Amino acid sequence: MTSLSSFSTPGSPATSGAVVPPYRSQVGPARITFGRLVRAETIALFSLRSTYVVLLIGGGLTFAISLLATLAFTASGLTEAPFFSFATIGLLFAQIAATMTGAGLYAKEHSSGSLRTQFAAAPRRVKTMLAKATTLFVSVFVLGVVLLVVSLAASAVVFAATGRTVGLDAGILVPLVLGGATVLALTSVLGLGVAALVRSEALTIAIVLVLLLVVPVLLTLAADQEWVRVISELMFSHTTATLTTPVNVAGDVLLRDALVSIAWPAAALAIGATAVARRDA
Amino acid sequence: MILPPPVFRLGRMITAEHLTKRFGAKTAVDDVSFVLQPGTVTGFLGPNGAGKSTTMRMLVGLDRPDEGRVQVNGRPFATYTAPMTEVGALLDASAVNPRRTARAHLRLLAATNGISRTRVDEVLDLTGLSPAARRRVGGFSLGMRQRLGIAASILGDPHTILLDEPVNGLDPEGVLWIRSFVRSLAAEGRTVLLSSHLMSEVSQTADRIIVLGRGRVLADAPITDFLESAGRDRIRVRISDPAPLAERLHAEGGSVTTLDDGALEVEGIPAARIARHAAALDLDLHELSPQRASLEEAYLALTDTAVEYRSHPATAAA
Fold it and tell me: How far apart are CA A78 and CA A61, in angstroms?
């Protein structure tokens, strides 16, 4: 028998000596642009029922807690607090929902294998990650604005119904709504970045919750140390708290906390996107 | 081993050059080179763990080679502005979010390259998935997922299509459809790489085959050449009295085997010579037919020492 090892011959029945005209795609002008990647990610995000469920539960809880706190306050007979201070009381639940949404947009697609199909269609992975981040940021920001406006409106109605003064000062309300919505949007991008790094939805949520809830508590245990105090002030939970209650905050502190709040998700996204670009899909 | 492509071929080619991929201490793909030619269906064969899927993932940039490179028409795949119009791939039918509908899955892929919704509906129609377009993929059978993967691979109407085990889970109608579909793609001048464990599928569809074993290319040749080189051309002889003919052929140095149905299988003696012996012995010759090695036999002979995961005959009692 002829040995077949390293067997190789040129040509093939279909092509030997034949001139094969090049096949050209007939689908019309196709091209990857950043805008198209954002559109694709928007379809990816809102074509899953879980996105609606998570955002509805997170937003619903935030609204409910805000309303309950307002009702409790008005029932107590106290008059000190302004109505807008209740709108962001339950924002942590919306932050958890934002984290889950961000984590899901990467981790769910990764674990199902859908991300591989996506990367085969659009191989520039960093661009795709930036498109995911943009989609998340804009979507969560818009939903955050709606949530906070509705929460503020509910608190204002309760205040007005109980005969309290409702001061509609745009100089306070607009920064509060935009700041709160920005925090939710940044949290979702933080979730995306961490998920890209650890490739697990559950682990991502755990890491972000530890960052938001556990680390700040641990740091307070050693708050007498100067370096611990500095670190505490640079924690994501601390700096975003400034953005959600931007009342009577010095301009330089607001700017610093805004920049640090942006730096956290930006760093997570940069590290996550680099990891995604370097490893096998 | 890799052969330079003839200059008169005008279509778009995929060239894999010295691809090597390691996973820890294991070398999954070892210095693999080949050229996929336009207008040709190339069968991609090899035992489990031979490195076929890893190689196919490297072709579209999903896995990064430790050494070597892949060029699509002279450029890296990732540099194309509309990659879906260059190469379409079905690498894993399950690589879909099960909670998404078939249409949403295709729409999001199409959106990345700016491909229209009309094209999404076209490929759903073409693959017979239109009635299930609004169903979640989690409820799909394997065959339906294969069809969805094929729909995704042709979404950009690409010139090169990579199909990893596309007939897995398909019903007979689906298998026939894939076979004619793949042939029609090649007839249009497209390049098709078809990985399959079904030898009958490959033998009926492919023009050329590449066989991998333990991460290395064991063969890369037109399927006819591959079968010829597998050798062992035999001649089946049915005759009124096999014994005297068998004795004579044996004396002449031929290898003669008596089959269950009484026919003889002869190796080493040409058919014309066998016929002359039969006539000299005054025997009635009922059949004299050349038997060529099947693709399965040729493949098994080639990969005999390259099988990584080997099963053992089952025993009735432990």
Answer: 24
